[in-house]
Amino acid sequence: MSERDSPELPDFSVLKRLARDQLIYLLEQLPGKKDLFIEADLMSPLDRIANVSTLKQHEVDKLYKVEYKPVVSTSDQLCFLIRPRIQTVKWVCDVVNADKAAGKFKRYKIIFTPQKFYACETVLEEQGIFGDVSTDEWAFYLLPLDEDIINLELPEFFRDNFLEGDQRWVRTGGSALHLFHSIYGPFSKVYGIGRCSKMVYESWREQVKEGEQKARQAEVGTVFLIDRDVDFVTPLCSQVVYEGLVDDIFRIKCGCVEFGPDVTSSDKSIKVMLNSQDKVFNEIRNEHFSNVFGFLSQKARNLQTAYDKRRGMDIKQMKTFVSEELKGLKQEHRLLSLHIGASESMMKKKTKQDFQELLKTEHSLLEGFEIRECISFIEEHINRQVSMIESLRLLCLLSLTENGESNQFSNNLNSAWPCQSYGVDHLLTFANLKQLGLLVEQQPGETLTVMESKMGKLVNDKTAGKLTDAFSSLAKKSNFRALSRRLSLVPKSDEEYDLRVPRDMAYIFSGAYIPLSCKLIEQVLERDGWTGLEEVTRLLNGHEFAVTGSNGADLRPQSDAQRIILVMFLGGCTFSEISALRFLGRERGYKFIVLTTAITNSARLIEAMLDNHV
Amino acid sequence: MTPTLMWTFQGMCCVFQMMKSKADEEDYWNSSKFKAFTFDDEDDEFTKLKESRQAVNSICGLVEEEEDEDEVEKVSWSGEPVGSEGISRFLSDSETGSGASASSPCVSCFLLPVSCRYLVVGQGDGVQPARAELPQDRHDAVAVSLEKFRSLQEKLLLLDEAVGVHDGNVITAVLIYLKKSLSKEVLFRELESRQTALRHFIHYLTESKEQRLLLELYRALGRTEDEALLQYKEHLRITDENKRRDFLKSCVSLPFSPEDAGHVQDHYTLLERQIIIEATDRQAETGGKVEIFQKFPRRASILNMPLITTLYYCCFYHYAETEGTYSSPANIRQTFRIAEKQYFVTALAARAKLKAWHDVDALFTSRNWLGFTRKKSPLSFSRVADILSKNNAPVQVLQEYVGLVDDVELRVALAQKYKCHFIVISTYRDLKDRQLLLGYRGKVERGSEEERKIDELLSNPQIRWKN
């Protein structure tokens, strides 16, 4: 398909302003000087929308990070800005009760964000301070990280929803979508797949009050919701696109990364914002890492030429050069040396850990080729106690791609050896991985599959709980191989793949694999629904939906709003997936906006499953 | 075939004249992921079940919602439209609902959290939040007691309704009420057939650390493996190693799956042994008499380390011990049924770290029945070379193993990587590849022994070069 002009993205800065104004309003609900305690993982998001002077203007005296320790504040008004977590609320209770015991009388306010939970208020009640503390909600759902990424910054969404089966964030998802809709909607088409997506969709619909929508021009017309558990394979793969690689190695936090001395070639670390404002980064973020070096060195040469221009200039020309160009060049110089430093450092790290061989193993797994070799690679990884996260990641990838059938090659992989190498404590981690379906134990053949489909119809929530439980683990079979065939996720390998001129989304994995999540989005947009994908959705355990609403929205497919597509990932998405969608957008004349509960990668995904701590 | 990789890291290095790769000085202990745990000493008391429910009741007013028709299109699970009595509507419409009448207790007359804002003196009742501009302002204003749901049937209907609207917050709220107002037996029995609610309840108990109740729940449901795992998890709270060991001992008889039971037994045995080794070695170290502890002071205690780490430690400090001692590697290997490959990798790494090349050599040497020795390894020799090089083995040691790599291409690649020039040279000679040999001459040092060797070969008339 030929390239088309992409439509302009809407302006998301209004979201920041909205969040900031609301926070200010809430702070003013506690008039006078007060100390503010901020939950550690809210610091960075807060940084993106307000700064210390904003807070000071609204009579915040001192700022503290919540550290679960007794507080030293002398202020007589304390305000806590926290996530709705029982542990944090218990700590606040301790603080209040300690003050009470010491005969101090203060005013307390808890601001829960993005919402409060009944369970948290129960803690206040149980600890005897309900009424002594006022509570409020800061509906800070949408944090724009970049011109096309909006983040809910709720990493716990993933574990709570998919592992624990707790639907507490469903409504949050619905509210986030609702907020987006009320500013940038109305949506005219909504597609989705996954249990959680469907629930979020319903929650959103319930929140849309009738008549609330004024007839106005939609900025975003199409929405796609997708559950993380629809595709676990993609986030478990090593990332090789620049931005993804930076995230895998340095961990990008809330759009910001800290480069250490090995990158800056000085003795200090610096924090850098990584977004489209950084011109150098913007050009390489979606590139396969192998192209980045060529690009950067070309850029360096250009820069040199630009600097060299000043030779032979007369005074007047020089003056213009200094006032007009030099600043830009210096800025570019700084960014360039930073990204060169980062690339060098990443290369060193990856060379050390035999990245090439690791990638080869991953690609073989995706392709279902030389599985025996892959297994011995993983075994060795474990035996040599190489990074546990990495070993678990590979084990999960093996299990997902082989559907648990690899056990016939090695009985020791699924827990014996990992326990010996990384500690028996991880029995709990293994239980979690199995519960989530990342590790599948071998099922005795076809018989169960047949049973499953027969019984599946009879089993429902109320009648046969135990059976549901037993079958839910069966339903988690990944069917990766079949899906891969049906959707041609693994390109034919006998053809050369030129990574400089990518022909499809597979370039984000060196041409070895088209991410399932993005392929589904592509297919549904192309078909304008799920028609023709029945077999695929069956393999994905269903829960797909497509709704074409009317409410006055513009339905012409050529309109700009229809070509701006909001993709909501429930449970997180990776930078590689975002790069793939950007590629798809360029190819098809779409613009994608990614709305995600968190930015994830293989390490974060596995770490969320660890349970070897109290 | 795997897809062609269009790039190699090694190849790209030259682009920016990367800094010369410094041999990694990674220290085993530093790189080890197993740091001491921090324990939270919080002791959970089984008190919350008897929570008084008076507090909230006395302050909650009853507010009911008017049900206005809503024609918003809905997609429900069953395909039927979601009823307009959905619970979450009452959360969202709270501002408008205060005038409704309450004739009969119905499931939809449900309500959620009391907003403290209205209870705190001095908090502005009359303040109209600027937030009203925001799309949602839901649990703010209203509080209604759940107390009117008294019969079991009503309670269960309430729960099912909550599950039906997929709002975890509401489900948990109802569960907290049911937990307070139903006996455990009844609650557990009813939850058994309600998986979604059950999972919310389990998560709530986990988060609020109501360990005992959760154990009782698992027991009542017959989920013995979960019960065992949860109990086993408690060991993480115990910091004192002797108490921890005793606790683990008591865990051994818990109803684990057969596989897990073996692991837990091993965990106990291992800690028991680590305690003995730690006591002896600490003494030896402070005594100052044992050379190895002087030369290589221990950086951390061996307590609570994984099995393989323990084996490494014993291969490092106690290699020569006879099988009878607790700390001898052979004894550990046998007790914990460590596979040959695992043992081999670990022993190799430990002895290489100590630069005990003689031990390394002995690991590979096997004698056949005629008494000839030959090198044998359960691990590919390329891996062996990798482990040795990561432990800074000298070229003399490395080349012996690189030379044993069967695959010619791999052998040359490794030899070049590890600078085992003689291996490269002799491989080229075996390949009778004069051009490659000539090319390699440029890469070795001028006037070195390697260069002499190459010249000698190149001028050897007996070799029939293929090019």
From TrEMBL, chain A:
<dbReference type="InterPro" id="IPR001619">
    <property type="entry name" value="Sec1-like"/>
</dbReference>
<dbReference type="GO" id="GO:0015031">
    <property type="term" value="P:protein transport"/>
</dbReference>
<dbReference type="GO" id="GO:0016192">
    <property type="term" value="P:vesicle-mediated transport"/>
</dbReference>
<keyword id="KW-0813">Transport</keyword>
<dbReference type="Pfam" id="PF00995">
    <property type="entry name" value="Sec1"/>
</dbReference>
<protein>
    <submittedName>
        <fullName>VPS33B late endosome and lysosome associated</fullName>
    </submittedName>
</protein>
<comment type="similarity">
    <text>Belongs to the STXBP/unc-18/SEC1 family.</text>
</comment>
<keyword id="KW-0653">Protein transport</keyword>
<dbReference type="InterPro" id="IPR043154">
    <property type="entry name" value="Sec-1-like_dom1"/>
</dbReference>
<dbReference type="InterPro" id="IPR043155">
    <property type="entry name" value="VPS33_dom3b"/>
</dbReference>
<dbReference type="GO" id="GO:0031902">
    <property type="term" value="C:late endosome membrane"/>
</dbReference>
<dbReference type="GO" id="GO:0005765">
    <property type="term" value="C:lysosomal membrane"/>
</dbReference>
<dbReference type="InterPro" id="IPR043127">
    <property type="entry name" value="Sec-1-like_dom3a"/>
</dbReference>
<dbReference type="InterPro" id="IPR036045">
    <property type="entry name" value="Sec1-like_sf"/>
</dbReference>
<dbReference type="InterPro" id="IPR027482">
    <property type="entry name" value="Sec1-like_dom2"/>
</dbReference>
TrEMBL record, chain B:
<keyword id="KW-0967">Endosome</keyword>
<dbReference type="GO" id="GO:0005770">
    <property type="term" value="C:late endosome"/>
</dbReference>
<keyword id="KW-0968">Cytoplasmic vesicle</keyword>
<dbReference type="GO" id="GO:0006886">
    <property type="term" value="P:intracellular protein transport"/>
</dbReference>
<dbReference type="GO" id="GO:0005769">
    <property type="term" value="C:early endosome"/>
</dbReference>
<dbReference type="InterPro" id="IPR040057">
    <property type="entry name" value="Spe-39"/>
</dbReference>
<protein>
    <recommendedName>
        <fullName>Spermatogenesis-defective protein 39 homolog</fullName>
    </recommendedName>
</protein>
<dbReference type="GO" id="GO:0007034">
    <property type="term" value="P:vacuolar transport"/>
</dbReference>
